[in-house]
Specification:
Layout (H helix, E strand, L loop, with lengths): L2 H9 L1 E6 L3 E4 L8 H7 L4 H10 L2 E5 L2 E5 L8 E3 L5 H15 L6 E3 L1 E3 L12 E3 H6 L2
Helix pairs in contact: 2-3
């Protein structure tokens, strides 16, 4: 992991929403990537890739929440898929309490994949309140 990637990872608080199980949360100031978090939980490489593609994950940074899914190096955009909206909505009150967010806090539903070590551009901006109204 390069220095820029380590700085970004330590500045944000990463999480993975495990459907029907809860939220896997990185410790504060952790430099772990989502992939490393899953590996430390004992998941195989195949399971890790599957989870990164299918499960909502993201981070909180500067009082903003970013949620997405995806893993392919060929994909330029990792977006939260509508099929996962209800899962995120189920855990959003817990994430808000954990990160001290409110209904007016910004929520992004994807990122544009960039270079490792850079902060990737967040996309699909909404608010927590507006997202909770989607079905």
């Amino acid at each position: 992991m390069d220095k820029g990637e380590q700085v970004f990872h330590a500045a944000r608080r990463a999480f993975i929403i495990m459907e029907n199980s809860g939220v896997l949360l990185a410790p504060a100031n952790s430099k772990l990537s989502h992939k490393e978090m899953l590996a430390q939980m004992g998941f195989s490489v195949v399971q890790t890739v599957q989870y990164l593609n299918e499960l909502p994950r993201g981070y909180c940074m500067n009082s903003e929440l970013c949620v997405y899914q995806g893993v392919s190096d060929k994909s330029k955009t990792w977006e939260l898929q509508p099929k996962n909206y209800k899962i995120v909505q189920q855990y959003l009150p817990d994430l808000c309490a954990l990160f001290n967010l409110n209904d007016n806090s910004n929520l992004y539903l994807g990122v544009l994949v960039g270079r490792v070590g850079e902060v990737w551009k967040k996309i699909n901006k909404t608010t927590i309140s507006d997202f909770m109204k989607t079905r």
